[in-house]
Every structure is written in structure tokens, then in C-alpha cells.
């Protein structure tokens, strides 16, 4: 026997619109109404398409009312809602400067400066035919030798 066709009523239209406004997925809304997701999309296109817009408008209205004189917690919640759902965002401007607020100096040349040549006696002498020891002299070693 075939399933009876779904007939939308005012209660279900308000319910679908509210759930869509809260961001509930279509499959979950369909389950609450007791119909298939395809049937939901067929009968409740308008409610699914504009539920979130009505919810955002209601929150924006509440934010305006709260921002003009009521509790702090309500304002924080409304701002969070609009950032998450209403595409609001905060922007930060970061400005970089050199010393004392002057422009940053550009580096045009990089040079390697050898402070002191290593002492040949400290490198150790190796007999002919043997590979030299791999002991590079670092600036730290040169400073320590003084």
C-alpha cells in the first residue's frame, strides 16, 4: 500500500522555517516532520531558503535593542551569532615599521665576515695521503682560544 501524500500545514511550515533558521540539516528536519528529504524540499522550498534570513533578521533586531541599553550577555551572544551566521567579521590592521617608527631598511647585500683566520697549528697536521680531520673552526672556538 502506498504512503499517504504529505499535506503541509501552517504548524509544519513554521517548524521547518525555524529549524532551517537554526541551521539544522535538511535530513534532520525531514526526520522531525516525518517525511523524506526530497519531499521536504518539494513542499517547503521557501521555508528552507529563507529560514536563516528571518533568523538573522530577528537576532539583528535583538542586538540593536540590547546594544541600546540591556544586558551584556545578550549582546555577546548576539554578536557571536551574527559572526557565525550573518557573515560579520572583525578585522585587524597590523603596521610594521623600523626603529623609532622609521621605514624598514631593505637589505641589498649579504656578506660573510671572517673575524680571524684560524691558527694553522691548532688545526693539527695530518700525514701525507690521509684525509684531513673534519674539524671546522667556529667563531665560538676562536673566541675561546684567546
Task: Give an overview of the whole structure.
It is a single chain. The chain is mainly alpha-helical and 146 residues long. Helix content is 51%, strand content 0%. The protein has helices at residues 10-21, 26-33, 37-43, 45-67, 72-85, 120-123, 139-144. Helix 4 runs antiparallel to helix 5.
How do you describe this structure in short?
With 146 residues, this protein is mostly helical. 51% of the residues lie in helices and 0% in strands.
Throw out a few tags for this protein:
mainly alpha; 51% helix
Order of secondary-structure elements: HHHHHHH
Low-confidence stretches: none
Largest sheet: none
Please give the share of residues in helix.
40-55%
**Radius of gyration, in angstroms, nearest whole number:** 36 Å
Shape call: elongated
Structural class, please? mainly alpha
β-sheet strand percentage: under 5%
Q: State the end-to-end distance.
A: 101 Å
Task: Please tell me the overall pLDDT.
Answer: 81
Question: Please, how many helices?
Answer: 7
- How many E strands? 0
Amino acid at each position: 500500500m502506498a504512503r499517504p501524500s504529505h499535506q503541509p500545514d501552517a504548524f509544519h511550515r513554521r517548524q521547518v522555517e525555524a529549524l532551517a533558521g537554526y541551521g539544522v540539516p535538511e535530513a534532520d528536519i525531514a526526520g522531525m516532520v516525518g517525511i523524506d528529504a526530497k519531499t521536504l524540499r518539494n513542499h517547503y522550498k521557501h521555508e528552507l531558503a529563507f529560514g536563516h534570513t528571518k533568523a538573522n533578521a530577528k537576532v539583528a533586531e535583538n542586538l540593536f535593542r540590547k546594544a541600546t541599553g540591556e544586558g551584556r550577555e545578550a549582546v555577546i551572544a548576539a554578536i557571536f551569532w551574527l559572526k557565525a551566521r550573518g557573515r560579520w567579521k572583525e578585522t585587524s590592521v597590523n603596521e610594521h615599521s623600523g626603529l623609532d617608527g622609521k621605514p624598514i631598511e631593505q637589505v641589498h647585500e649579504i656578506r660573510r665576515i671572517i673575524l680571524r683566520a684560524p691558527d694553522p697549528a691548532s688545526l693539527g697536521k695530518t700525514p701525507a695521503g690521509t684525509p684531513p680531520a673534519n674539524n671546522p673552526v667556529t667563531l665560538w672556538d676562536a673566541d675561546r682560544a684567546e
